[in-house]
Amino acid sequence: MARITLQQVAHSYQRHPKDPSDYALKNIDTVWEDGGAYALLGPSGCGKTTMLNIISGLLTPTRGRVLYDDRDVTELPPEQRNIAQVFQFPVLYDTMSVFDNLAFPLRNRGLDPQTIHRRVQEVAEVLDLTADLKKKAAGLSADAKQKISLGRGLVREDVAAILFDEPLTVIDPHLKWHLRRKLKEIHEKLQLTLIYVTHDQVEALTFADKVLVMYEGEMVQMGTPAELFEEPRHKFVGYFIGSPGMNFIPCRLEGNRAVCDGASVVLDEETVRRAQGKEGPFELGIRPMYLEVHDEPGDDRIPVQVRKVEDQGIFRILTVQMASSTLKVRISEERPLPGQEAWIRFPRRWIKLYANGRLVA
Amino acid sequence: MEKWENNRAWFLILPVFVIVAFSAIIPLMTVVNYSVQDIFGPGQRFFVGMEWFREVIHDERLHSALLRQLAFSCMVLLIEIPLGVLIALAMPKKGWGVSACLVLLALPLLIPWNVIGTIWIIFTRPDIGLLGKTVNDLGIAFDHTARPLDAWITVMAMEVWHWTPLVALLAYAGLRAIPEAYYQAAKIDGASSWAVFRHIQLPKMRGVLTIAVLLRFMDSFLIYAEPFVLTGGGPGDTTTFLSIYLVKIAVGQFDLGPAAAFSLIYFLIVLLFCFVFYQALQNVGTGESR
């Protein structure tokens, strides 16, 4: 086990990158604490897998250093880093039995048969694979195969971390849940560092203690699921996390008010102070669930047209038109539906101000 | 349910039926017809039953041709399959080298078979052939028209040169189809390159190698044009393979009856071997530890 540090890591798949856009990964600085459960979240092509492969050593970064604790491993190949990686599609050695599959990494390292036998039994126990040990790996179901891939990582003692590259993509939905719980269980039992790449926010938020959101090769925010939800540091995090994503409304600052088309909202002093000297364009951001809906006009209430209502079970999503902006509002299903005309209020503590896409904080 | 009265379906399968009839069934039945008759000339034929089969089965020259043929096909498989896999493993994986290799490999496959025989006759001639002359100048006596071993070596070399590229192309296709994640996982598991070959590449190539073995076995078992042009079956009978012997009986001696019986036996042998190979390769590495 180890603390993993990336120092100013950048990677380009081109041999002679010139432009910043040639980089799949741009200047990443981050620390993965020992024993943490991390998720790496972002859309396809944002550099998640590149980052994972740099940590495991399948790729050597164009720039920067990778440290395990204080040891520089940037130039070391994966087999010398003692790391485990589980891929999107289960990778199995088809001709071998489950036992031999699990024993393979140990045999390659020349361990004695007794140790191998003991370790394989232990890992099979943890993964509920004991009954399958003698079976051919090729004939098993997708989730069992993925467990074997994971097992080949766990079987080595003291791996620095286990990296998952969208491991549940090919698993049936009802087994996904089961397997994810198994991962959590293993994490709690073995206290291993887990880094889990996914583009599914539910998977990331339920699995990880800390989530790192990536966007176009950059790390936009690292935080707990609650932090990402309540304090998105970048517009992209606001969009990407939450369903539906955060509302953003272009605005300009006038004194302590943010004025946008059709409304003006009072900001708290702290935000106003911080916004001094920031370059625009400015935008207001608010989560759909924090917008209040009223049937009558009143203080700070802004008139809107209700355009659409979507019923999502325990809540409803309203699409409302506020002058030229379209907003989403989440209301509980117990609340009676407003009519065509409604009024919304922006509670001050949930209003976020963004300057040039980044949170003013 | 009432039976469908309209028999138009028969009409729809007629084209296939006609094609198969003319391409396979009628020729085959003609051979069967010949194999049970003694034919002296047009209109003069007698039914002889199993006589030709009995005769052919007890033909000593056929026995030795069959053994020769089996030895040849086995050597072909033993040399071409490993060699083809080695070439495929050594080929570049990207860049301009891939196209260059593929074109070079495909060249022998594009040459007409009798031309290949001719090329190798000239290539190995002791007086003017590039290879033949060089070898003789080095002090090694080499003449495929006079010495059986030299004839065999030449035929084998020609066959390997001609057909190994096919195996290499198939194996290369099989290798390229292996997802990158397997190699990455093997790296992380600390596998040696031998282990990668043994546990990833070889099992993943099983499908294409099965095809390669079947194709190479069938083709080499039926080989005719190249050795016929190169050695004409000689010296003596030493490179007379089954098909060359068969043509000698049928066309050389005009013994249509025995030749037909021989053809049918030949056909059954090829079928039998292909079935055995196919079954064996399907099961290899899947039934061990169940």
TrEMBL record, chain A:
Species: Desulfacinum hydrothermale DSM 13146
Organism phylogeny: Bacteria, Pseudomonadati, Thermodesulfobacteriota, Syntrophobacteria, Syntrophobacterales
Keywords on record: ATP-binding, Cell membrane, Membrane, Nucleotide-binding, Transport
Highest taxon of source: Bacteria
InterPro entries: AAA+_ATPase, ABC_transporter-like_ATP-bd, ABC_transpr_FbpC, ABC_transpr_MalK/UgpC-like, Mo/tungstate-bd_C_term_dom, NA-bd_OB-fold, OB_MalK-like, P-loop_NTPase
The protein, known as: Carbohydrate ABC transporter ATP-binding protein, CUT1 family (TC 3.A.1.1.-)
Sequence ranges assigned to domain ABC transporter in this UniProt record: 4-241
SUPFAM superfamilies assigned to the protein according to its UniProt record, in alphabetical order: MOP-like (SSF50331), P-loop containing nucleoside triphosphate hydrolases (SSF52540)
Transmembrane segments: none
Any one GO MF annotation of this record: ATP hydrolysis activity
One GO term describing the cellular component: ATP-binding cassette (ABC) transporter complex, substrate-binding subunit-containing
From TrEMBL, chain B:
Subcellular location: Cell membrane
Record protein name field: Carbohydrate ABC transporter membrane protein 1, CUT1 family (TC 3.A.1.1.-)
Principal location listed in the UniProt entry: membrane
Organism from which the protein derives: Desulfacinum hydrothermale DSM 13146
InterPro entries documented for this protein: MetI-like, MetI-like_sf, Sugar_ABC_transporter
CDD domains noted in UniProt: TM_PBP2
SUPFAM superfamilies in alphabetical order: MetI-like
Similarity comment: Belongs to the binding-protein-dependent transport system permease family.
Gene Ontology CC terms, in alphabetical order: plasma membrane
Transmembrane segments: 12-36, 70-90, 102-123, 160-178, 207-225, 260-281
Location of the ABC transmembrane type-1 domain: 66-277
GO biological process, one term: transmembrane transport
